[in-house]
Amino acid sequence: MPDRPNPNIWYEAARQIQSELEGDIWGISVELIEEKLYTGMYCFPVESTHTIRPKWLSIAEYILSHCDTRDWACLECWRYGTDRVTERNPVTVIVEVNKTHTNPSIKSARDIHEVLVFFNESGVDVLFQTNAKWPL
């Protein structure tokens, strides 16, 4: 969100964008981020030149068909980390699980790592986040 004396303009823009997209993309969330205030985690798309990109759909299908996904809400692949420079953050498979999940994530993380090794992507990280709302 750029430095503006009236942030309400940006809030209204975010609300309008969300209302436009809600009909087509179920559960979408539009956020405003002020980079100067943000010192947390960054999430970037994986560049098209990375080896996982052409394999991602096959990897995701394999994971979804071979892992216990009962409590999963989302499966994605991003560069995720604390650096503002995209390439300095590791490529990470991110699994969002329902807040009420009961399955231990460690077994699923190991299973995903095995899938990544099978697809020659052993350097890719795996992260489980407990903050999702909807089942996969």
From TrEMBL:
This is Uncharacterized protein. It comes from Penicillium nordicum.
